Structure formats: structure tokens, C-alpha cells
User: Fold these one by one.
Assistant:
Number 1:
Amino acid sequence: MAKTPSFMIDSMGREVPYAWVPKYDRVRDQRVNRIVDRFTKARSFLERLMSDTLADLDAITSAQTEAGKEASEKGNLQVSSFDGMKTVSLNVRYEIHLDERVIKAREMMLEYARGIQAKLSGPEAKALEALIDWAFQSTRSGALSVARVLSLMRQDVPAKEWQEAKRLLSESMETRRGKSYLSVTTRPSRQHDPVPIRLDLADCWPMPTEASNE
């Protein structure tokens, strides 16, 4: 049996004699601490699970190489058990980042677009500048939309100035490894589709009993 503490620490960091703490606050404190401890242990278990799983996948990749099978350069992997009833997939996503050279590329593109406006008139002359402004418009987070910026690379403008700006824009792009996603599926039988094993609290709510539905 756990020993009753002589005092508890309140939200101001002060020691309060245990006997002075209302029963509700004692129960609340006890249950919250139990939940946090439970989640902390589960988190540690999941971290070990991921570490062990990645080690197993590394072993499979090494076996692939020894067997003369070509592994994915990007780190993607999909393997199944010998009976084909269980499958493990590792999907690695890559993201494009833009460095400071994108600013110079934007200036060069705008300079070219404004040069066209000085020579021509009408909505067509302003269309390119409007497209550039749209492509380099910051998102709500203050960052550039890579997809929008990349849309400028598809503009077939033969002018030397524009091609130079596109070259600089291309050089400003760096591909980095992003998040990796791991999925594990099983098939109850060969007549069933694969069913994912989800480690997601949203999928772990206990099913209501018949008594609770009455």
C-alpha cells in the first residue's frame, strides 16, 4: 500500500499539507499522474518498436543487396512475408526547399516582365508580372509555396534574361528528405483485402458494450 504523502505541491510550487487538500483535488491529481505515466510508458514502448522495426528493415535491405536485388535509392521499401499475408511498407517523402537565390531570380523575372510592359500595352503585357507576383506570394505561415514557384519553370519564354532567371531559380532548389511513413498490413485470409494495423489512439476507443447502449 502506497504511503500517504505529508504534503502536495500546488500550481504555484508551494507545499500544501496533504490533509488540507480537498478530496476532489487529490483524486484529480492522482488520476492525471496515472494517465501521464501510462502515456509516457507507451511512448517509450513505441520508440523501441520503431527502432527495432527500422533495424529489421535495414537487415532486409542488406539481404536484398546480398541477393543481388536492387534497393530503392530513395529508401522506399515494401516487403511481404513468405505467405504474402503480411506486408510492411516504408515510404520516404522528399521536400523541395528554396535558398536565398530565389530572391535574385524573382528580381530578374520581374525586371524582364516590366521591360515587356515598357514596350507593349494591354492585358497581355501585364500577365507575366501578375503571374510572378502570384507565384511569389507568401502563404499564411510566411513561406513561399514551392508549387507556385515551380509553375514559373513551365513558362516557355525564350528570352535570354528569362532563361537565366529560370536557371538561377532551378539552382536555388534543394531536395531534402522529409517525413517517413511506415505501414503494416495483414490479410485475415486470401479472400480478404489487406487490413492496416493502426497505432492511432483515434482507432483504439473501446467498443461500446450492449449494456451501455441500453
Note: The first strand starts at residue 7 and ends at 9.
Number 2:
Amino acid sequence: MQSPNGSTNKTSSVKLSITFKYDKSGILTLKKAEVHTTSSTSYPLKTSTKLAGPSPLTKAQKAKCKKHLRAYEKRDKALEKLKIIMNEYESLIYSTRDILEDEDYQPYLKSEVEKQKLNLFLDEEEEWLYSDKTKNEYNTVKAKLKILEKKINPMKKRRQARQQIPEEIEIARRKIDEHENSFRKYTKRRSWIKESILEEFETLVVETREYFDEKVLNFKMKFINNYVLDASA
């Protein structure tokens, strides 16, 4: 073998020592290389050649990667938001169909025509919901959801109001009873009150009850005429 100074040593053996560095990013680089002889002499080698494989990212490359990552995260959040409101709209369509077929809700539809129009609207909206038009259309789906709620809310409110009527009627009847009892207790402590005044009060109570019952009956009849389904419509 020929040494770096040009002399030849046929009996010496040579060893090559190479040191690598493996960083946290998984990049493998050649750090140092030396030639060792039996005479304990070491000859460092130049390590200008780079190993094949990925190299560490530059500052500009890292910034670009972060920008792309933020864009992907924003897109994923928008898609998740769209998915949630689409599911909400789909559920509202199905629940509205159930309401239209629920016997308990039938008296609160204005007519059979109203029911048919709502069913047709639901068919059209369901077809639209499963079409490609809904891609990236969060605001459109949200607006459609509000439109459907606006269409069915009057029926729900009519039902809610109708369910509250018996309780409100009962409260009004109790008020009449309370006023009557209060007056009777008052007159018992006031013996000087004339009999004619008591009779007048009794007449007033009877007339009040009759008037109240008449108004309640008229309201019930109005409700039936306005909200029960008309099969001939």
C-alpha cells in the first residue's frame, strides 16, 4: 500500500473508520471518515460527498409546509361543519315526515293540501341533499334548514297552544271560584249588606259563568273549523 507521503509499505494493514450521525428527523449524514494503519497513524478523509436520501428542510420549506398544513386543517373543519348541518337537515326532513303522518298532529294541519305541499317539498329537499350541489354549501344548507323550520313551526305552535288551552280554561274557572268565595266570606262578616245586593252578586256570578262557557265553546268550534283536515280540499 502507498501511504499519503508516497512511500510503500507491503506489510502494513489498513482500516477504514466511518462515523455517521442520525438525527431526530431520521436524516443519516456522514460525520467523519479516517484511515488507520498498524503504525497507529490516522489519516482523515474529506467527507464532501453527501449520502443519498432526504435532507433537512430549510426555513422557507418549513414555512411552506406549515401553510399547507393550516390549509388542510381549515378544509377538514369546514367539511366536518358541513357534515354536521347536513345530518341535522336530514334528521329534520325525516322527523317532519313522521309528524305529517302522526295522527296526533292531523288536527293542526290547515288542510290536506297543506300536507301534500309539505310532503312534496320534503321530497325535493331530500333529493337536493344527496346531490353534488351540497358540496361546500354550508350556508345554503343552513338557510334551507331555517326555511323548513319556518314551514312546520306554525303547525307545532297550533298543537302546543291547543294543548295549553284546557289548563288555561281551568285556571280561569278557578279565578271565578276564588272571587265568588272571597265575596261570600266578606258578606258573612258584614251583616248589614242588603239581600238585594247578594242576589245581584249571585246573578252576576251565574252570568259570568255562562258567558265564559259560551266563549270556551265558541273557541273550540272555531278551532275545529279552522284546523281539522278537510278531505274535500
Note: DSSP finds four helices and three strands in the chain.
